[in-house]
Specification:
homodimer, 342 residues, alpha/beta, Rossmann fold, 3 domains, six-stranded parallel β-sheet, DNA-binding
Chain lengths: 342, 342
DNA sequence: CTGTTAGCGCGTTCAA
DNA sequence: TTGAACGCGCTAACAG
């Protein structure tokens, strides 16, 4: 007796269906493959036979034959980050509509794990890859094998593939200006590792504005780097800043994790905005409202995902033009709507 | 000339490697399959040849041959919900460690889409399925084909598979008691559709306590149902409750979405807790702290995911015992740590 | 321990 | 339009 399964049903093949429908296996294949035409009543007979037998085409056999799959690999640093979660959701929506499945690959910003997943993607082989590349990402293997790749959030090394990004430098600058306009004058910055493109670009935008306003280089003591992935790192960095002899009166946090951590630290010190100003680059998951003293830049997360997915589908379809880089706008006002952005 | 791809590299097969290493294809297969033993130096030769040629085993061929895959289908209502996101993350961690990949399937509580995905899973065929079943979920197809299934968050129809759930009734009751203990006395409940097991169980726990405290049935006007998936629905329901001639002084929100929406509504009315009490069943993404007047039940999200994944791996390995149902405890205090729960 | 052989289920030639 | 035959790349038998 078997529990849990009603039975290890024998695989029903096109041969079974063919016999039952009184046609050749090739005809069955054509009915389900949908390429070459089949007479209507023969097709109907095949459909009927297939339904009676509970036939489901075996994708592995098809893939082996055609050496293609309908799987898109989505490789992101951390699916537990709302930004990547929403990004993935958007990709999945577009992919599903086009008949593709999404394989989820968490890299945790770990190059080894990323390499491992790229190997899996290569041996799958997947139809395409959407990836947020890390510091030393090597796309060579995928490209050699002709697997299309689209990068999201960050550019690939040497810009060898399509990419969908936002204008980090400019929007970081704009957000920083807002802090000055709100009357803050001692600005600090908590950004990510110097191996990550966005953390450098955001710091760059910040520093440019500080220089232009103060006429001097930003104080190095007011610029901290923390890991992008853990709230706790942002919290620690913010606490460290506020413990300085001459602490900042506003903090630029370069991603949502860091902003969340910073808010935690400020809350613990009883210095929530507007007591201390804050830029949250990318919306933190504050449910209710944005308190005064907080400047939030809203990333067009959903758009990034759908754009990337469409670009990838174009590449899968064979589009052969030079790498494209799409830069999407960053909003400084809550775009409202259904949490479409982050 | 080709852009984007360095070339549609010819597939390197075990035959190529075999020739280069001076062994038989079967030996190459054994080196990569890892079942039968191979002499050390022969294995080394194979590895070397494979590396030089850039050989990557073709999974589709292997799967066709073995009619097995290393893919787990994760079918959840909405990956953009933090609960399911964290759940998925946990599953992915365990799966990856065991050499499996995770295929992401958003059902949006839509039976049609669920059915569609179950078909895909059947034709893949996937090694196993982890699913949050909806109202009319039909697992028949998967079970007939012998694909192991583990349900999470909700039981399957007729409890035909393993399941990992929490004790919704009891913890809903406990949370409701807290509201009374805090001095609230006019309690309302916003729960999900009556087609969803958890929304009924949570309402049940709520109602039991109301009955035992007031000695009467809960006022039907104070019990609302809203969709589980959108914050906006919770917001609307809460607004409706507060517009009653005799509005409640506390609201039991049966999931994190509904709690978020309720908080939004209360904020808009200037009635944030503790002015109006709130139970959030499942933690809402409040970054900073839990205000007084809010009772949060923290679901052991990560545990649910890892437990389910391990149970599925056991089933995939062939474990053949009656369906198990694991009920995990719900915490009423912030378990702290790294957002492991929700 | 290793090589030889025969398919896994399907898509795709080629003739008819 | 349809059917027969071949092979995608690999692993599971078997024989050595």
């Amino acid at each position: 007796m078997h529990f849990l399964t009603y039975g290890k049903g024998q695989m029903v093949t096109i041969y079974d269906v063919a016999k039952r429908a009184g046609v050749s296996p090739a005809t069955v294949s054509r009915v389900f493959g949908g390429q070459t035409p089949v007479t209507a009543n023969r097709a109907a007979a095949v459909q009927a036979a297939a339904a009676e037998l509970g036939f489901v085409p075996n994708r592995n056999a098809r893939r082996l034959r055609t050496s293609s799959s309908e799987i898109i690999a989505m490789m992101v640093p951390d699916i537990a980050n709302p930004f990547y979660m929403l990004l993935t959701r958007a990709v999945e929506d577009v992919a599903r509509a086009a008949g593709y499945s999404v394989m989820l690959c968490n890299t945790d910003e770990d190059p080894a794990r990323e390499q491992e997943y790229l190997r899996v993607a290569a041996s799958e082989p997947v139809a395409g890859i959407i990836i947020t590349p890390g510091a030393g990402t090597d796309l060579g293997w995928a490209l050699t094998r002709g697997v299309p790749v689209v990068c999201v959030d960050r550019h690939p090394p040497r810009r060898v593939t399509d990419a969908v990004v936002v204008d980090n430098t400019e929007s970081a600058a704009a957000a920083t200006r807002r802090l000055y306009e709100a009357g803050y004058h001692q600005l600090a910055c908590i950004t990510g590792p110097d191996t990550i493109e966005t953390s450098n670009a955001r710091l760059g935008g910040f520093a440019t504005v500080v220089r232009s306003v103060t006429g001097a280089e930003p104080d190095p003591a007011l610029i901290l780097r923390a890991r992008y992935v853990l709230d706790a790192d942002g919290e620690r960095a913010a606490a460290q800043l506020m413990a300085l002899p001459d602490p900042p009166d506003a903090i630029f946090a370069a991603n949502n994790r860091l902003a969340t951590g910073t808010l935690r630290a400020l809350h613990r010190l009883g210095l929530l905005p507007p007591a201390v100003g804050l830029v949250s680059f990318g919306g933190p998951p504050s449910v209710l409202f944005t308190p005064p003293g907080v400047v939030v830049t809203y990333l067009p997360t959903r758009d990034i995902g759908t754009t990337a997915a469409h670009m990838l589908l174009e590449r899968i379809a064979g589009l052969d033009i030079p790498p494209r880089s799409v830069t999407l706008p960053v909003a400084m006002e809550d775009p409202a709507g259904d949490n479409q952005q982050w």
